[in-house]
Design brief:
This protein has 409 residues and is of the alpha/beta class. It is 39% helix and 15% strand.
């Protein structure tokens, strides 16, 4: 049995309808763009995913891992969308695209500027078709400057941003974060900016140009670190997560499994020492403030480690939880998916699709008390081509003609 087969099953429904009536044309591929469009779809937007004929979204081919021939990476960022397989480099295909743009509120794309202009999907071109259009571009470096035409992936953005240099052990190599962080953060930035643009366009009737870069989003993620450098002149280095501005804020070993511990203020500091049976240490003047504790960090960490190693993790987590001390396990992904609290929050589920089931990671937010954002499963390539074209006014014969001309699949 696969892990997802143990998850609660849901049915496609109405989902959240906050953006009902907002039409989004998704011209993106891979992760950042599709995820941004899915965030809008999860809130009720009608998202049409325009994919290349002959293969579609790049992420469809990122396998293994796969489920029933579909890339699980693709399935993670494309629910609640309709797919049309369209070659808009052909004249008939271009006509279809322009009809879609004319009826759209938002278009999302992730081509570099040079390619946008080559394909005639740049802001200047599409805004002439639809002056009220909200144009959302997600690229590696943005649409301005000497790097506007440089290609980029999450890995490249993590390197540029500085996050890789800060990730890993002090004596180890730089490390990439264990998820496509730049993609996901840039997607969130794009979705947030789009929501603001939708509000303003509804108020003013003016279109907008939203320019998001992976490197920019990943870099602003480091704002507390960057500000610390700018104001102190001290360049932070890799430390294995042991150099927080909070004096005691790291992982510790216990008698069996490691845990994380954050003593974030003076009250928590005192409660910690009371909980471990040494209340006098919480009252010492030479460690009474975070600044003083940072100066004595090495000695404090050593002492705490000597205490925690004596008992198993669950013993300490129970005691810390009862005392209001922030602490937790370091979970593997299989443990995360089995977490009953996350399950109750509706974060993991599967959806029956005919004879097969598809897993999903839901939205982390609850809207009006509901986490039910699912309206439809990630689409098969071109699954809705005929439906979308019919809505644009194409007859069955017209659609067959477009297929014969190679404009659609």
């Amino acid at each position: 049995m696969l892990p997802f087969e143990k998850l609660p099953q849901r049915q496609c429904g109405e989902g959240i309808q906050w953006l009902r009536g907002v039409r989004v044309v998704d011209l993106t591929t891979s992760i950042a763009g599709p995820f941004a469009a899915m965030l809008l779809a999860d809130m009720g937007a009608d998202v049409i995913k325009v994919e290349r004929t002959g293969g579609g979204d790049d992420a469809r081919h990122w396998l293994p891992p796969e489920l029933d021939g579909e890339s699980l990476w693709f399935l993670s960022v494309n629910r609640n969308k309709k797919s049309i397989a369209l070659d808009f480099t052909t004249e008939p295909g271009r006509e279809v695209l322009e009809k879609l743009i004319a009826k759209a509120d938002v278009v999302v794309l992730n081509n570099v500027l040079r390619t946008q202009k080559k394909l005639r999907i740049d802001y200047d071109t599409l805004s002439k078709i639809n002056p009220k259009l909200i144009y959302v571009s997600i690229t590696g470096f943005g649409l301005t400057g000497e790097r506007a035409d440089w290609t980029c992936y999450d890995l490249i953005a993590e390197g540029y941003s500085g996050i890789m240099d800060l990730t890993g052990e002090a004596d180890g190599e730089p490390q990439k974060i264990g998820a496509p962080a730049a993609d996901m953060i840039a997607a969130s930035d794009a979705a947030i900016a789009t929501l603001g643009a939708i509000f303003d366009t509804a108020r003013t009737g003016k279109g907008h140009k939203v320019d998001v870069s992976l490197v920019g989003s990943m870099t602003r993620f480091l704002a507390p670190r960057i500000m610390s450098y700018l104001g102190s002149g001290e360049v932070p280095r890799r430390s294995g997560g042991r150099d927080s501005v909070i004096a005691i804020y790291q992982a510790f070993d216990t008698a069996d499994l490691p845990l994380t511990l954050g003593l974030g203020n003076d009250s928590i500091w005192k409660r910690f020492w009371h909980t471990v049976g040494q209340p006098e240490l919480g009252e010492k003047k030479d460690t009474a403030t975070n600044a003083k504790r940072r100066q004595a960090r090495a000695a404090i960490v050593s002492r705490i480690q000597d205490i925690l190693i004596e008992k198993p993790r669950e013993y300490w987590l129970t005691r810390f939880r009862d005392a209001g001390i922030p602490a937790g396990p370091i979970n593997r992904l299989d443990e995360v998916v089995a977490d009953h609290h996350l399950m109750e929050r509706g974060l993991f589920y599967s959806v029956r699709d005919g004879s097969a089931a598809v897993p999903q990671v839901g939205s982390a937010y609850h809207l009006d008390g509901s986490a039910e954002t699912l309206r439809s499963l990630p689409p098969r390539l071109g699954e809705h081509t005929r439906e979308i074209l019919a809505e644009l006014g194409y007859s069955a014969d017209d659609i067959d003609g477009l297929r014969d001309e190679g404009a659609i699949e």
